Amino acid sequence: MRIEQVTEKVSLKRSIDQGTALQQQAVEEIIAAVRREGDAAVRSLTEKFDGASLENFRVTKEELEAAYAQIDDEVLAALREAMGNIRRFHERQKRESWFATEADGTILGQKITPLDSVGVYVPGGTAAYPSSILMNVIPAQVAGVEKIVMVSPPGKDGTLPAGVLVAANELEVEYIYKMGGAQAVAALAYGTETVPAVDKIVGPGNIYVALAKRAVYGHVDIDMIAGPSEIVVLADEGANPSYIAADLLSQAEHDRLSSAVLVTPSTQLAEAVSLEVEQQLATLPRKEIAEASIRDYGVIYVTQDLDEAVDVVNELAPEHLEVLTEEPMALLGQIRHAGAIFLGPYSSEPVGDYFAGPNHVLPTNGTARFSSPLNVDDFTKKSSIISYSKTALMNNAHKIAALARLEGLEAHARAVEIRVPGTIRGQF
Question: Which one of the listed residues 170, 276, 319, 322 is annotated catalytic?
Answer without folding.
Answer: 319
